[in-house]
Amino acid sequence: xxxxxxxxxxxxxxxxxxxxxxxxxxxxxxxxxxxxxxxxxxxxxxxxxxxxxxxxxxxxxxxxxxxxxxxxxxxxxxxxxxxxxxxxxxxxxxxxxxxxxxxxxxxxxxxxxxxxxxxxxxxxxxxxxxxxxxxxxxxxxxxxxxxxxxxxxxxxxxxxxxxxxxxxxxxxxxxxxxxxxxxxxxxxxxxxxxxxxxxxxxxxxxxxxxxxxxxxxxxxxxxxxxxxxxxxxxxxxxxxxxxxxxxxxxxxxxxxxxxxxxxxxxxxxxxxxxxxxxxxxxxxxxxxxxxxxxxxxx
Amino acid sequence: xxxxxxxxxxxxxxxxxxxxxxxxxxxxxxxxxxxxxxxxxxxxxxxxxxxxxxxxxxxxxxxxxxxxxxxxxxxxxxxxxxxxxxxxxxxxxxxxxxxxxxxxxxxxxxxxxxxxxxxxxxxxxxxxxxxxxxxxxxxxxxxxxxxxxxxxxxxxxxxxxxxxx
Amino acid sequence: xxxxxxxxxxxxxxxxxxxxxxxxxxxxxxxxxxxxxxxxxxxxxxxxxxxxxxxxxxxxxxxxxxxxxxxxxxxxxxxxxxxxxxxxxxxxxxxxxxxxxxxxxxxxxxxxxxxxxxxxxxxxxxxxxxxxxxxxxxxxxxxxxxxxxxxxxxxxxxxxxxxxxxxxxxxxxxxxxxxxxxxxxxxxxxxxxxxxxxxxxxxxxxxxxxxxxxxxxxxxxxxxxxxxxxxxxxxxxxxxxxxxxxxxxxxxxxxxxxxxxxxxxxxxxxxxxxxxxxxxxxxxxxxxxxxxxxxxxxxxxxxxxxxxxxxxxxxxxxxxxxxxxxxxxxxxxxxxxxxxxxxxxxxxxxxxxxxxxxxxxxxxxxxxxxxxxxxxxxxxxxxxxxxxxxxxxxxxxxxxxxxxxxxxxxxxxxxxxxxxxxxxxxxxxxxxxxxxxxxxxxxxxxxxxxxxxxxxxxxxxxxxxxxxxxxxxxxxxxxxxxxxxxxxxxxxxxxxxxxxxxxxxxxxxxxxxxxxxxxxxxxxxxxxxxxxxxxxxxxxxxxxxxxxxxxxxxxxxxxxxxxxxxxxxxxxxxxxxxxxxxxxxxxxxxxxxxxxxxxxxxxxxxxxxxxxxxxxxxxxxxxxxxxxxxxxxxxxxxxxxxxxxxxxxxxxxxxxxxxxxxxxxxxxxxxxxxxx
Lengths: 298, 165, 676
Known about the structure:
The structure holds three protein chains of three kinds. In chain A, 51% of the residues lie in helices and 9% in strands. Chain A is an alpha/beta fold. In chain C, the strands form twelve sheets. Chain C has a five-stranded parallel beta sheet, with helices on one face. A five-stranded parallel beta sheet of chain C has the order 20-27-21-22-23. In chain C, strands 2-1-3-4 form a four-stranded parallel beta sheet, with helices on both faces. In chain C, helix 5 runs antiparallel to helix 17 (643-653) and helix 12 runs parallel beside helix 13.
């Protein structure tokens, strides 16, 4: 075994659908993720701006918890992924911070050497390690006829993460072509969703969310694929309020990419956490996929 | 002897076409680097006879640098590959004699890579400085590493024979 | 008999003396190094007075060896050899050791630099004792020249040499000569019609009695060396009999297969499966593109064959290897455009109305696919606003760090053409405007007057995601205008990406065939960046034009002519000197093990069956010395780099290394030892 799994707090609460679908997909693809024992919150985006040292220590604890049998730590949430990755880099490059973090870890009987654990996003693992052949081989329900808009958000493709083009990522696009979906190559797929801006300046956040929905709708997407709980929350939960605010009529389901991957792998939609989203995805998906099947049998 | 920083003496064999020109370029671009490498020009890294290296060590060099054109870019088509093969054999042999690996290094530097050559020299000087003077005779003790290296030579030789057979 | 060595340490003004105590070293060498008869330092050894000093000493002091401590032998070895020669000494008894590039210029600490220089001088003194007189070899220079690449630089070189009365083989990979310049509409800053000034040169080269044109051909192999290269050219099959074809063009007219022309038309227009790239092509002999011809696809059609009035179509024609012999080679292989898809946020290939600069050249060209009308991809809409994005793939760490040099001017040219032909607004997004040649800045000023708009900033993205109604249906260029410090969005109809100039894909490969090297980016390396810009480290191989680095047409022409002048000089001289640095085998001592035979990449070592020994074929030996190092019996000698010389050099370089107990007694003891 080599992959340790860091679910992050969101997956235990608001985005249970992500957690559920990740686990179902992983099981179906037949490889193991060992959940990190006693992991703690990554501090999300706020903690770093409050107190860098404590934030770093808190995250470093998670890295230190990865035992010797594992050399990879997989995070499905974009924010957790970025924080873990950033911390590892910070510890490697900034001896001053590292010294203090070492002390903090030592107080808890822990130790971490930067670079020992490779932090990976789930998409990277699926795309690179599992790969096209293995995934294609397990597709039982091709997503033919479904127009999906892959949304990367702003955190997962920062230059330091290195697994996709930071300006114009394509890996999720490619993965969904493997699954037979019509992938919408729309221009805002790596633009910001507003993050926690909804709590601070609603209007600005709504405008950011509107741009994403507008562009996906312009390109006639049936739904948007996410890989970050925050992005999903913003585009799904606030979609109604965005509609009210701008007098628009968006009705775009926002689902996790693992949910749709699960559908393609033939996993029962109930096991994939569908139904928790506010803009219902199931009717759209069923409509499209059954329409296809009907057309094919005719 | 006062407590001075140990300044290793390194002999560098640089090929006329790439590495020597890289050192020239480092000069015209004023890329400062450690002054410990004394450069001997050869036409090609393929000219570096293992006995040159042994001679340098026996005359008191603390390390030897061999630099040539990048693989595939040799002025003489492919002679740097021969240099590479000799280098690996020689390093293995020297290891058996108690000479640390860092004391003999092979660097590829094209005529455009003054910066890279300068960096490689600095890195090598640092490493050799850490090791201290060669102290040739002092390294003749029976230690595990030496025996291991000797065994490795035998094994590698066997493997090489298998490939050609 | 002991040698009498003269040691000369150069100050090079303050270049060496600033970091190395040259006076002290000269004195030290004279007092401490064995066999040194004269030791001097001088301001500039390479000056005529410096050389005179050496010559006088050789004569007066009867010196038998000379050591010069100065700059790189690549710079002044010839100078000092000549000085020795003038004084009657064999030039190979001189050694120039590099205490400038390798020492004073790169070390900070004066005492450490001085110690290194001392060791290098000591090494040279030990080495020079063992140097042997050598006689240079001379070979005749074949007056024929090979020019690779039929763009403007290669054409210029070809015509200069041909007009001077020398034969030139001009090899071009594409079906016609002309290069990128043939694709342009206008040239900056004069706005000359590109074709009007280029095509006369093309047809002149096509008809010149001293030019053998080999188009649709590539360099296969080069052997030999300066003066007498043997070259193999692959003439790719045109499927057309070159001599029988009259260029009437009926085959092209009747060919039923249309394909996208990604070469000459940069994907903006079509051509036939049998084609001449453009109407003024030279030679006027078409080529069948076997990948798209219906006959090669499914054994049908042969329309061209049936209609050809001279039966010139030959479907079964095969590639032909042509052997030629030349004295010199000029490489003028040019550049390739940057692939703008590598910057996906600019939308090329995804957003229809984003164009590359080469596409736009064809769009502007009166002979192009739109007859010079500037219209969008739909073929009819005239754009109302155009954005020109500079530095696409240039001055960008993720792609090419260098400035491509010509794009600012080409952007201004585009701006002028758009303003002249349409009512569109033109925005130029630049980092710095670079207009530093004759009349270039004036052209920039002119465009400012003509109403082209300039925004200083690096474009972050080109998108079709509208944020407001005015942006609907437009391409939005997002850019920080750094002169006002604000993020701005510019909705436009058309975007032109000024892509970088990049080295040809196979530049490195071709360079290796000819024995020359490339920079990190892939541009050919000249012998000296300032003083020898068209020669290379390999004698007899010259470079011209953009294959050496991005440049505009005037500079390419100048280099083409310069390379031709260098070659003409070699031909006029008639003979060229070859360094006598070759290997030789002592056949008496050779055991005939044949290890050396496989060492030589030039097959310069032959095995003689009768004597069961190996022998070096001197004419083929290039002097790398690998066989010397490989000989288990040590009976191969590498002239000027023999074991004795190098051992002595190592010994000299480490004169101060064996310290134990040697502190006080060393000088007295080692000196006689090394003299024996």
